[in-house]
Design brief:
The complex is a heterodimer of chains A (about 290) and B (about 525). With about 290 residues, chain A is α/β, with parallel strands linked by helices. Chain A contains nine helices and eleven strands. Chain A is globular and about 55 Å long. Classes of the chains: A alpha/beta (about 290), B alpha/beta (about 525).
Chain lengths: ~290, ~525
């Protein structure tokens, strides 16, 4: 192992690291304009409709995936699963066979290493978006990475489930232009049913980020049988209206079974008419940028 | 030396004429155009360089030089870019028109002029900087009045200029007319005219975005790096035909192209290609173009007789000629194969570097070739990355990465493009179908355009991956019209046929969607 690799091992000290699931050089769906999107591994929520469940857990290096890797991008060395990005053909066999809801297709990276990959996309991008998993679980990494991105003149957005108390983290907020927030349900009961977690902090973040005008986008995935969608949309819109954020984009996202775990695949997609109805309600509050995805 | 037509060749040409006459898929106008070309090709007036025939008039798989359907007796310049500002300001004695005094007169006068500008296709390939020309006339008109007039006028252009090599320009300054034109063109989804927005550092983002939104619906405008063109050609440049940078008040006498992929077949290895085969073909093509230009300027009488020249709408001194090429990707791949290397153009540093070396050789050759009638461009031709024709196969346009082999990541694609656009003041460009309808993020395209401006990227085109109007290689067609033609009906525009051929031979419907 090289000195650099040793420095990356857990507990080795040095700069903060994150487990990076994927870096998309040009993304047109992770905020305004062209952005490099960085996906970090691991999420504290367990949304039933999660369409990339392999990003929820971190790899325990059990090696169960290795035999399924036909191009030989995976191997075991010193008890850890090694991933060779150059050999990978993105067939997804590895995480489809992961018994732990994770993916071996990740890299431990420092802020500077991620920035090196972002830098090759200049000058075509206006910013970076860090997503997940839940990116705020790598809070120290975020502060480091977003500071570097800012220094290059890039915009910085986070994609978050709202489980991190942004109002109490001035250091992170100082280098974050905005948070694109998922509001998955409005009542705590509904929220627990969707995600397994309470949402007091999500609601607090919604209002606080709106008040700071650091809320460029809110998303709600519509699954009528799982939670009260109209109530959620109405409450989100009320907060946006009360805080003067009528230009915040509200994405009404159609639930689709693609990528969803077998046990939850029975959930039904909403009708287009229902999505239109919810979007109409949002526009009724004066929201100017409601998008059905 | 002048060619001699044998009786067999004449009989073959007579048969060509007959085939044109009875072709059910050609409209009347198309038949007339092709008949004129067939008549021209009975002549043998050019003193052609020795060795030309075996490179030009031969089987398609060995053809190394292509004259792009120019006839054998050039009697008008291939591309004519008239000074429309002078025309609106002064009128024309030949056309019996005075200066245009208001918006209606300007629109009418322009339309009359368009029908009096010849070209290789008999339709105008440049119809003016529409914003600069028309914006001064709309001061007292409401947006809706201008929209209505533009809708009718642009529709008239689409239905009467039957060829989408017809090209309008707007930008780099934002104007009210420019905005309204973007709105109207986005609505109409016409294939004609082709349109370029010239973008400079100080072009407002909002104006570029209006262009992007229009292009995602109607595959135009394309976006030109204004600073780059201005640096090479000065302030009086325009974009004509597919994407060709030429002088306003001038144009291009002629365009021939090197088929690099076939020239590579003649070479034993890379060295042989660079030092023997490529220089041999380049020299013959340059001398062939010299002779075409000589005949046009000295013998055809066009510059002495056409009212466009005699009234000063064009000046002979502002013409140049376009030295074209196609198939760099296949050329590089074949040469590497001959050296036992499987690396591919667009994907490896070695292959891309070989492409650059070949371009440097062609560029040096052109800079050392002198033509006295190209004084506008220093006595040299302008290099041109030709967009291909429908009969091309295994031969990608200009320096493009072959369709189906585009790099996974758009950024890698753009970085390859960046190596090659600088060589081509008279035009090159790359095309990207985009799927942005759902996420409503036209700023994504804006960022890519802006990024390109800061690099050596000259010209980018985008279209919505689900649009009816699509960009074939440099020109536009409607998918719906191609389907009609494919079903044996005749269609209005010449270019629909070219597009249909290209969709079958050149995989243009299979471009990687971004």
């Amino acid at each position: 192992m090289t000195a650099e690799q040793v420095a990356l091992l857990p507990g080795a000290g040095g700069p903060p690291r994150a487990t990076v699931n994927k870096i998309i050089p040009f993304s047109c769906v992770d905020g305004p304009g062209n952005r490099t999107a960085v996906f970090l591994q691991g999420c504290n929520f367990d949304c039933r409709y999660c369409h990339n469940p392999e990003t929820i857990q971190t790899c325990v290096h059990c090696g169960a995936c290795v035999p399924y890797c036909k191009p030989g991008a995976l191997s075991i060395m010193a008890g850890r699963v090694q991933y060779d990005i150059k050999k990978c053909v993105l067939c997804d066999e590895c995480f489809h066979h992961c018994p732990h809801g994770s993916s071996p297709r990740t890299r431990e990276m420092t802020p500077a290493q991620v920035m090196d990959e972002v830098r090759r996309n200049l000058p075509f991008i206006r910013g970076v978006t860090v997503s997940g998993g839940e990116c705020t679980r790598w809070r120290d990494f975020l502060v480091g990475f977003l500071t570097l991105a800012k220094a290059e003149g890039l915009g910085t957005l986070l994609d978050s489930n709202g489980s991190h108390d942004f109002s109490a983290d001035s250091e992170l907020i100082a280098v974050t232009d905005g948070v694109m927030l998922d509001v998955k349900a409005w009542t705590p009961e509904d929220h627990v049913r969707v995600t397994g977690w309470d949402n007091a902090l999500v609601r607090k973040n919604l209002r606080w980020l709106a008040e700071q005008h650091k809320l460029p986008e809110v998303r709600t995935v519509i699954v009528p049988e799982l939670f009260d969608c109209e109530q959620t949309v109405r409450n989100v819109c009320e907060v946006l209206w009360e805080t003067g954020n009528l230009n915040t984009r509200y994405k009404i996202i159609c639930y689709r079974p693609m990528g969803v775990r077998e046990v939850y695949k029975g959930l039904k997609s909403p009708e287009q008419a229902e999505l239109q109805r919810l979007a109409g309600i949002a526009r009724g509050y004066g929201l100017t940028d409601v998008v059905i995805i | 030396m002048k060619r001699v037509l044998t009786p067999e060749m004449i009989e073959e040409k007579r048969q060509d004429v007959f085939n044109i006459l009875v072709d059910p898929t050609s409209s009347h106008e198309q038949r007339v155009t092709y008949l004129a070309r067939a008549a021209e090709n009975f002549l043998t007036v050019l003193d052609e360089p020795e060795g030309l025939d075996e490179l030009l008039r031969c089987d398609i798989d060995t053809r190394c030089i292509c004259n792009l359907f120019e006839g054998d007796a050039p009697y008008r310049p291939r591309y004519i870019c008239i000074d429309f500002e002078k025309f609106l300001r002064e009128g024309s004695a030949f056309l019996q028109l005075g200066p245009a005094k208001d918006f209606s007169e300007a629109l009418t006068n322009l339309m009359i002029m368009y029908h009096n500008i010849p070209s290789i296709t008999n339709y105008p390939v440049y119809i003016g900087d529409l914003d600069v020309l028309l914006d001064p006339y709309i001061t007292d008109l409401s947006d809706e009045e201008v929209r209505k007039a533009l809708r009718l006028w642009m529709t008239t252009i689409d239905r009467t200029i039957l060829d989408s090599f017809c090209h309008a320009n707007i930008g780099p300054k934002a104007t009210r007319l420019g905005y309204l034109l973007m709105e109207v063109e986005g609505e109409l989804e016409n294939a004609v005219p082709n349109l370029t927005m010239r973008v400079a550092k100080d072009t407002p983002d909002d104006f570029v975005l209006a262009g992007v939104k229009c292009s995602l619906k109607s595959a135009k405008p394309s976006f030109a790096n204004d600073e780059m063109f201005r640096g090479e050609l000065g302030d009086d440049y325009c974009i004509a035909s597919c994407y060709n940078g030429l002088y306003k008040g001038g144009g291009s006498y002629t365009l021939s192209r090197l088929i690099l992929s076939n020239i590579a077949k003649r070479a034993k290895n890379i060295e042989d290609f660079k030092t023997r085969e490529l220089p041999y073909v380049m020299d013959i093509m340059a001398r062939y173009m010299d002779e075409r230009i000589r005949f046009l300027v000295e013998d055809s009488g066009w510059f002495e007789s056409s009212f466009l020249a005699t009234e000063g709408f064009v000046q002979r001194e502002k013409f140049s000629a376009m030295y074209g090429l196609v198939g760099l990707a296949e050329c590089v791949n074949l040469l590497l194969e001959k050296e036992g290397c499987t690396e591919r153009f667009g994907h490896s540093d070695r292959a891309n570097q070989l492409g650059v070396e070949i371009m440097d050789i062609i560029n040096d050759f052109n800079n050392n070739h002198y033509n006295k009638y190209c004084e506008a461009t220093g006595g040299h031709f302008l290099l041109h990355a030709q967009v291909g024709i429908e009969s091309d196969h295994d031969c990608s346009p200009g320096t493009r990465i072959p369709i189906g082999e585009e790099p996974d990541e758009l950024v890698d694609h753009l970085n390859v493009i960046n190596l090659f656009h600088k060589y081509f003041p008279s035009g090159t460009g790359d095309i990207f179908p985009m799927d942005l309808t759902v996420h409503k993020n036209p700023q994504y395209v804006l960022d890519i355009i802006r990024g390109g401006l800061g690099m050596d990227i000259r010209y980018l085109s985008f279209y919505g991956s689900d649009s009816d109007v699509i960009r074939v290689t440099g020109y536009l067609v409607k998918r719906s019209e191609m389907e009609k033609l494919d079903a044996g009906q005749n269609v209005r525009q010449n270019t629909t046929g070219l597009g249909l051929g290209a969709s079958k031979n050149c995989k243009i419907l299979d471009r990687r969607v971004r």
